[in-house]
Structure to design on (278 residues):
């Protein structure tokens, strides 16, 4: 019978490998998905070499983090004495995205009762296990979200594809945003739900959108010539001032070279600036 966490192997967006943990502590490679195999080929590594570089395996039922080649590794020691390793790009670790990059993996039964949780720290879990283990989703997240999870599970069983659910919870007086990916198959007794805290991500998206709107407003209303050009000088965007000064419509300007509108004495310096762009 398929083990519950093996459902995650079908994820199209994450690289997974599984090893058996021998009594001696040695790791015996069992299987991986296509993204994991692509990483092995890209870095000319074998599963044995990956295993040798992950460091200390976390205790049974726990998770930890490691660095493998150019990737962050999330290790989960399953109840079956197997090591589930997920790899993701290491550049995330040094960005603001690190705040919300860590997953929490929940194992539920077909009735949507929480059975297990795998996480890197209690801080990431956000609530103690006794608040949800052996309780159904509606008892923890409410009836409306339970219906959404149930519909998504049914769709996952029919299509064989993971389903995405977003929701909010108030925790410690703060409203938090979450994204859940639901994985399941007909032959599996368990449902895997991978949850991300996307509160910070959504806040950054809102800030970006507000900034973009302000910049667009400034761009449109400015009386000075303002525009956006490609690296070779092709005009991509212009403001109203171009039409007012030159008499050309935006449609006529877009796609033309910016150097057509620069005095020939200034053109060499401007070309040099384009060549020196970061």
């Amino acid at each position: 019978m398929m083990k519950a966490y093996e459902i995650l192997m079908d994820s199209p967006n994450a690289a997974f490998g599984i090893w058996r943990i021998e009594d001696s502590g040695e790791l015996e490679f069992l299987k991986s998905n296509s993204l994991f195999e692509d990483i092995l080929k890209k870095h000319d590594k074998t599963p044995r070499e990956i295993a040798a570089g992950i460091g200390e395996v976390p205790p049974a039922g726990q998770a930890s983090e490691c660095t493998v080649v150019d990737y962050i590794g999330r290790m989960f020691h399953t109840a079956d004495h197997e090591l589930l390793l997920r790899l993701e790009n290491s550049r995330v670790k040094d960005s603001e995205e690190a705040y919300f990059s860590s997953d929490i993996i929940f194992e539920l039964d077909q009735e949507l009762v929480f059975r297990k949780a795998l996480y890197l720290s209690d801080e990431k879990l956000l609530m103690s296990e006794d608040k949800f283990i052996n309780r159904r989703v509606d008892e923890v997240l409410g009836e409306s979200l339970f219906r959404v999870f149930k519909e998504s599970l049914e769709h996952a069983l029919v299509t064989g594809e993971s389903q995405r659910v977003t929701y909010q919870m108030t925790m410690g007086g703060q409203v938090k945003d979450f994204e859940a990916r639901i994985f399941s198959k007909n032959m599996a007794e368990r449902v895997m739900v991978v949850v991300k805290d996307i509160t910070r991500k959504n806040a950054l998206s809102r800030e970006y959108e507000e900034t973009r709107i302000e910049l667009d407003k400034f761009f449109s209303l400015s009386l000075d010539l303002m525009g956006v050009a490609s690296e070779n000088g092709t005009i991509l965007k212009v403001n109203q001032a171009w039409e007012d000064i030159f008499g050309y419509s935006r449609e006529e300007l877009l796609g033309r070279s910016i150097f057509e509108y620069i005095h020939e004495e200034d053109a060499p310096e401007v070309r040099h600036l384009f060549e020196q762009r970061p």
Residues 91-101 have pLDDT under 50 and may be disordered. The chain has three domains: 1-94, 103-218, 222-275.
